[in-house]
Amino acid sequence: MLLCRSNLTSKIGAVNSADLRGPARNARWHTDGPAACLDDEEHMFHPTPSKPSPEPCLQRLKNETRARHGALESRSVLLDPALSRERYLDCLCRFYGYYAPLELRLRGSPGWAEAGFAYAARYKSALLAQDLLALGLLPARLHGLPSCSALPTVETTAQLFGCLYVLEGATLGGQIITRHLQASLGLTPESGAAFFAGYGAQTGSRWKEFGAHLTAFALQSGAGDAIVASANSTFETLDHWLYPERITAQWVPAPLQATYPVPSPDSPRHAAASSP
User: Fold this and answer.
1) Whole-model pTM?
2) Which distant-in-sequence residues (6+ apart) come within 8 Å of 1 by Cβ?
3) Alpha carbons 97 and 265: distance in angstroms, whole number
4) Which pLDDT tens digits describe the chain residue by residue (276 residues)?
5) Would you say 114 and 160 are in contact if contact means Cβ atoms under 8 Å apart?
């Protein structure tokens, strides 16, 4: 701050040497106008450093989950130009085995109501079931699919938001996968690609809505560390479930489509399952 020389001179005349040794030493002197000519000495020459603003929680999540997120994406075959219908069905079966039990836990949590967040409008396992049936999986086979038990812990509201960051974030990448499925396999949301289509044209706005709730909760609760830890746990458990051969190299599971074959549209079993 600049010192106003003329005003400073007149003010100093009113201050004796005793004042300079006493508490008045740090007194504030001001001009008659709105600008201060001499500020607090301690403030002028020893300013208190301002604390850096905390990193927004969404940015923290992006930065601190990048490694696990990238590893999971690198193993995906969903954008493979040679993706077959059978391999795609295998992927959906595995996703269903993770999402269905996890969503049962998420649905039953009181944390959503406490945070004022409408999670019920964001269930995904029903879309996976819709796709599997559209691709020819029989209902009895659907209910008998393997189910993941090593799920992330979702007991606190912070853990809920961290977990949902992963599930909701997947809807963004799902838009790219949806276009690939239509181009390579001729699938639409009505014929087997509803899960990856997600919210369709509303995907961007739904993501922003979720991000706003997560950010507000993180600021209010100060639970950023717990949210990030939960997101990483979700990425990790999903990776372990989708690609167990990476964890135990000695045991490579048979493709799920070998256990749950896809009947052709003309087969009697498919016709019977499709009839009311």
Assistant:
1) 0.71
2) 36, 39, 44
3) 24
4) 444 444 444 444 444 444 444 444 444 434 344 444 444 444 444 445 455 555 799 999 999 999 999 999 999 999 999 999 999 999 999 999 999 999 999 998 999 998 999 999 999 999 999 999 999 999 999 999 999 999 999 999 999 999 999 999 999 999 999 999 999 999 999 999 999 999 999 999 999 999 999 999 999 999 999 999 999 999 999 999 999 876 543 333 334 433 333 333 343 333 333 333
5) no
Q: How far is residue 216's CA from residue 142's CA, in Å, rounded to a whole number?
A: 38
CA dist 224 and 216 (Å) reads: 11
CATH superfamily to which 57-274 belongs: Heme oxygenase-like (1.20.910.10)
Distance CA 14, CA 248 (A): 84
For 28, what's the count of Cα atoms within 13 Å in the CB-facing half-sphere? 10
**Spatial distance between the Cα atoms of 193 and 95, rounded to a whole number of angstroms:** 13
Cβ neighbours around 133 below 10 Å, total: 16
CATH 1.20.910.10 domain position(s) in the chain: 57-274
Residue 162 structure tokens: 């961290």
Q: How far is CA 194 from CA 11, 39, 84, 146, 190, in A?
A: 77, 65, 17, 21, 6
